[in-house]
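To illustrate this point, we now present one chain and its tokenised fold:
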Amino acid sequence: MLNKDFWEERYALEQTGWDIGEISQPLRNYFEGLANKKQHILIPGCGRAYEAEFLFK
């Protein structure tokens, strides 16, 4: 069940269970509160990169 094909199908069908469709409010609040806007931020994991898009904009 928890193999490569299972997760590829879930991802293709957008049924991952954790994707809320946008950056989460706690991360948005944290990023907006940062004083140094030029610092480097590591975004671990994989997914749709809502956090990276938010930081880019």
Observations:
- Helices lie at 4-12, 25-33, 50-56.
- The mean pLDDT is 89.
- The CA atoms of residues 19 and 48 lie 8 Å apart.
- Residues 4-12 form the longest helix (9 residues).
